[in-house]
Amino acid sequence: MQADYFKKKRLSSLSFFVVLAIITVMAIIITEYNVVKGFTSLPQAVQWALGNFYPTVESLEKLPDIMDKLIETLLVSVAATTIGALFALIFAVLGSNTTRVNAFFGSICRGVATVFRNIDVAAWAMILLFSFGQSSLTGYFALFFGSFGFLTRAFVETIDEVSSGSVEALRATGAGYFSIISQSVIPASIPQMISWILFMIETNVRSATLIGLLTGSGIGFTFNLYYKSLNYDIAALVVISIMAAILCIEAISNYVRRVIL
């Protein structure tokens, strides 16, 4: 029996890789992608980057302006994540199988979150451009909608995972709905929820760079402006600033996770 099980598992894995290989070959044929040219052009790309894409002493004069745009991007990302987390918490409590008011209303809450989660932040930015134009507000709402959808799903799973036992115990004692939420669900779930919020902030900082290209705001627009004007040294300084900010945020997030988890 065990031999048959491992044989079936190997056949399933082999079938998966065969299908993946067929899809890859079909994609190469349809897009007319030249694999050999793609790999052989890599050394030239690296050589160009080393020869042109690096900051100079003159580019450091633009560092204050770059930092202003970077701080703006960071603040928008944090604000969108935290406000999205508040709304996500409400929808997660109402949509969780453990704490929902009723099945119908819970399904509606989960459905709304699913719609927001499955639309990418870049798509949200393009949709919102028609309403708000190219502005920081467009980027904020794009990140907010994406954060809300993702965090609602994460919070629902967290509540169902860590709170089901304590919720049943409180219900057995006759505790009210709001008492259960405040005394059991929130205290038990808050460490994992904070971890998800920190992860979302990291993700939004990265996404905000791309969103800035579409909305004409933040550090993404700054990079696009200098890159298109062929100021590669300043564009390289923008990239280095973004990388440094992301690494700092990741280090802070990892430290907070070690403390709370």
Explained architecture:
- The protein is mostly helical.
- It has helices at 2-31, 35-40, 42-52, 63-95, 103-118, 121-132, 136-162, 164-172, 177-215, 218-228, 232-260.
- The chain has two domains: 2-52, no CATH class; 59-260, MetI-like (MetI-like fold, Orthogonal Bundle).
- It starts with a helix and ends with a helix.
List the keywords.
single chain; 261 residues; mainly alpha; MetI-like fold; 2 domains; 11 helices; 0% strand; globular
Helix content percent band? over 70%
- Sheet-strand content, in percent, reads under 5%
CATH homologous superfamily label of the largest domain:
MetI-like
Strand count, sense and barrel status of the largest sheet are: none
Overall strand count: 0
Q: What fold name goes in the CATH topology slot of the largest domain?
A: MetI-like fold
Number of helices: 11
Structural class comes to mainly alpha
Question: What is this entry, summarized?
Answer:
The chain has eleven helices and no strands.
Secondary structure blueprint with pairings:
Blueprint: H1 2-31, H2 35-40, H3 42-52, H4 63-95, H5 103-118, H6 121-132, H7 136-162, H8 164-172, H9 177-215, H10 218-228, H11 232-260
